[in-house]
Amino acid sequence: MSLNRQMKIFTELESEVRSYCRSFPTVFTRAKGYRLWDVNGREFIDFFSGAGALNYGHNHPQIKEKLLKYIAEDGITHSLDMATKAKEEFLKRFQAVILAPRKMHYKIMFPGPTGTNAVESALKLARKATGRQTVICFTNAFHGMTLGSLAVTGNAFKRQGAGVPLNNSIFMPFDNYLGKDMDTAVYLERFLENSSSGVSLPAAIILETVQGEGGLNAAGFNWLGKIARLCQRHKIMLIVDDIQAGCGRTGPFFSFEPAGIKPDIVCLSKSISGYGLPLAINLINPEIDVWSPGEHNGTFRGNNLAFIAAAEALTYWEDNSFSREIAVKGQKIYHFLKEVVQNHPEIQGEVRGRGFMQGIACGVSGLAEKICALAFEKGLIIETSGPESEVVKLMPPLIIDEAGLTEGLRILEASIIEEKNKLKNPLKRIKLKLRSRDNQVASGNITASDKPVSA
Ligand SMILES: *Cc1c(COP(=O)(O)O)cnc(C)c1O
Q: How far apart are CA 370 and CA 367, in angstroms?
């Protein structure tokens, strides 16, 4: 069947808002670990991991077993936020495996099951706890698509979608935004401590330690420490949005652990359930847990299947071995990327990120998107990130083995070389462009509005 026929119902019936099915145009059927298969039986290596929702890979066997057993026994599936055995088990496990060994004292809040709901409730709580209204956020930040989260998200295209003014947020330059020589923590401090800066004390400062959607900008641990101390000094709530960088993505369970900071609120979602099931939690400093009962709620806070999966996924964190493994493989990714950037100066690449969220920012406009599109044709699922989609973003599942990692990196390098070679010869480049455009038009697959947009 032609690609066009296969995608028919999606192009005809599904809203224009769809995006990833444009970047990865096929119909997927099955997945296991770091592999996916489509209706044509083609196999793909996953370097995308559901944007970080599949850190433990697809359909993890032990988690699946727990879920199947729970369903077979008619365990509670939906319960709003009533007390259930599944929730009890998750809370106990989270305390024993994550909080206690780190000497962390947090209360756990279940907002609605999406990341943006965790961010919304964190912002609400910080405002209520401090009685202040504004929130300081950073350039290139991404915190979700509902209005409160959008207000602290940098990307102009996404902000425009709101259709109303987004306010009560103040943007400050993230670490390195103004170059290596400018300490933007000092800049921020000056704004907060000078009574004529025009910036009043905010309720909160919200940040990602590694900006996932904003281009894999990793904040320095020193910088994070300065921001945290600034928050402490002025009783500003520090919210770390660890929705993408948490759950081991950078190595440790929390991305901020190596910085030695203590956020007042930590937002987790994406991989917290371990199986791609919707779940979000906020960790809250008990002193600011000033909610009244039901003041923030939602129908799907009791996603018991996600609790069952999440409790099992924590098995990975019972000791340090998983963290160490991620660090070792993360180094392998780093060295690979460094070498690619050195060997192919034409792409004007810069290595960014940490651990299992690293990538190459390409200085050549449009190149990263082409590399990812070609990689997909070669059987690798990988996406771009950054304001101009200029970063090739590697997000393999954390459980990927050496063979899978090596194969994925090989496909990526081949795609980079092929696209680089097209760059060298402008005549060839134009010809290829025309040819691929012809193919797309002939298959009826691409319409004017079908330009892929990365989420
Ligand atoms: C994905 C993401 C969100 C939003 O999560 P959704 O489940 O898509 O609402 C918020 N913050 C960060 C850092 C994210 O990566």
A: 5
Q: How far is the CA of 244 from the centre of ligand 1 (A)?
A: 7
pLDDT in tens, 1-21: 899 999 999 999 999 999 999
Is residue 174 assigned to a domain? yes
Q: Which domain holds residue 417?
A: 3-59+323-443
CATH value at residue 380: 3.90.1150.10
| Ligand 1 atom 10, closest CA | 143
Which amino acid, 249? R
| pLDDT tens, position by position, 118-176 | 999 999 999 999 999 999 999 999 999 999 999 999 999 999 999 999 999 999 999 99
| Ligand 1 binding pocket includes 116 (Cβ within 6 Å) | yes
Measured distance CA(240)–CA(256) in Å, rounded: 8
Tokens coding 174: 């993230």
On the CB side of 43, how many CA atoms lie within 13 Å of its CA? 8
Cα 362 to averaged position of ligand 1 atoms, centre (Å) = 24
Claim to verify: residue 207 and residue 338 sit in the same structural domain: no
Atom of ligand 1 nearest to the CA of 244: 15
Judge if 189 and 301 occupy the same domain.
Answer: yes
Rounded Cα–Cα distance for residues 111 and 120 (Å): 9
Closest CA to 109 of 118, 99, 97: 118
Q: Which residues pair with 351 in a beta bridge?
A: 360
pLDDT of 432 > 70? The answer is no
Tokens encoding 79: 């319960």
Ligand 1 atom nearest to CA at 146: 9
Closest atom of ligand 1 to CA, residue 116: 9
114 lines ligand 1 (CB under 6 A): yes
CA distance 395 to 354: 11
Whole-number pLDDT of residue 302:
82
Mutate to test the pocket of ligand 1, among 216, 239, 243 (most ligand atoms within 8 A of CB): 243
Please count the other Cβ atoms lying within 10 Å of the Cβ belonging to residue 186: 11
142 lines ligand 1 (CB under 6 A): yes
Number of structural domains the chain divides into: 2
Instruction: Give, for ligand 1, the residue of 239, 269, 282 to mutate: max count of ligand atoms closer than 8 Å to Cβ.
Output: 269
CATH code for the domain in which residue 176 is found:
3.40.640.10
The arithmetic mean of pLDDT across residues 406-412, rounded, is 98
Asked which of 260, 282, 317 is the last residue of a domain, the reply is: 317
Nearest CA to ligand 1 atom 6: 115
